[in-house]
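Appendix B, record 7
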Amino acid sequence: MALSEVPEGVRDVLRRRLGRLPEASVTVLRLAAVAGREADAEVLVGASDTDEDGVFAALEAGLIAGLLVEPEPGRVRFVHALVRETLLADLSLLRSTRMHGRIAASLERLGSHDVSALAHHYARTASSATAAKAVDYCVRAAALAEGRFAHAAAVDLLGDALTSFARIPADASSDRDAELLDLLGRLLRAQVRTGAVIAARETRQRAIDRAVAADREDLLIRAFTAWTETTPWQSRTYGTVDEPVVAHLERLLRGDDLEPAVRCRLLDAFCAELSDTGDPRVRAAAEEAVALSEGLDDPPLRAQALARLASELDAALEVRRYAELGREIDRMGTAHGLPVYRWFGVFTQACAAAVEGEVAAARRHIDACMELARAYRMPEPLTVGETALATLAHIDGRFADAERLYAQATAGMARHGSPHAEGFMVVATATIRATQGRLGECVPEVRRMVEEFGPVLDDLLAVVLVADGQLDEARRVLARLGPVPRDFFFAVFATFRTMAMSALGETKGAQELYDMLLPYRDAPPSVAGFSVAIRPMAATLAELATLLGRDDEAAEHAAHAAAIAARWESA
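Structure tokens (predicted):
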């Protein structure tokens, strides 16, 4: 019977089989298990405490016992992962650590070019004597992983590099703080590429704290400028501002001796911290970064600045410039081999096409985005693309497909540590329920989210309470609302507020809301960066006009909404 067919109790069976072998042979097999699923016999000879004859005798015993196979001359492989796991399970951490060190040294003596294997074994040696080697190999292996778009592997390797760095003995001749900041910057960038944006922020905060503790402004600048790629969505928790971080950036930007490239990246960081807060300095900072980058021969920096400016534009009101930026970012990404900016440029064009009513073009661009995200293994762009596909399914009336795609997208968000996954799913589901006329079903989940996130979801709470017939509480919630925040979910929450006000006959604030929404009369059903769908804004304006007693305007808006819906063939 092949080991792969062994049922439960396999470990007991394996232990009995191992127990029939000489202890010296088992020790060599454990060494092979530490080396990996497959091992080079010459490496094992160099790493073993016994001589060459003893190693080969042990390997032959493993072959005869059916524990090993020979995939090619000079190499052995465990016939099943469970064989290796059983050998490792009975090995102490102290012993395995020593074995990793001996394997690493053997690989190095033999002139191995397998940087990943050297990184793996040296990182697990846990020795101050070899810690510097571990850092070097881990950094090199991480770079190779990044080149294969294996960003998660790069994150793991850089985490190992940092652990090993802590073991390097202090040396007065080295700039230990600068070396640490370099490693943290590498880790931060790898985390961004895996979509682990919150983890990247935590890494950056670690770098900031070290720079502040060392009273090193040069290191503080390095901490902020290490973030060199754009992210499709906000890089901070929704509805929050990290005031200490903003204060650091404000102080650094007051410096008059910054190099243009450094100032560009600091401006980008400043925008990221205050985006969607209504602070006019954000747009000015984004425009300045674009102007500065134009005179620099730095395509990635130029693309980053353009992407930041695109993120700060109101696509519905500035669609021509927004579309131009999308095309320029796409061209730069293509010309300079920058996949994330190719994706960003195409996605920007998708959003612009939606605003312009070019429905077929918007759909084509979204499909192209998905192809790019899959080809280059970009987790966050893939998630954003999945929400766009869910939005299109919602617009098409394929509600079950929309919910499935949203669930898939938010599962990805959760895997990458996003604090927004559950809240976004609740909002996205509510947009579908609004179309279905089933908003009342959302009350329990929305209440729970309000308890967690606070009043930022009060517009949603008000409308679901109305739909559930809890009118008195809905009025109380509506009464405590301030202006609708001009942020990512502006169109969504403005629509929900209008629905609640209309159902309750509440005219207070209706004129202000009408005036605020009128410039968005032509807006498509896809909103919030193509992440959700709502009825056309013209339908919301029609409801507000009716509430205000302006029936002729209401009729005009309603007709316009119907035309937009027909263009999108929406349900």
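Remarks on this record: The chain has 29 helices and five strands. The domain at 3-111 is CATH 1.10.10 (Arc Repressor Mutant, subunit A).
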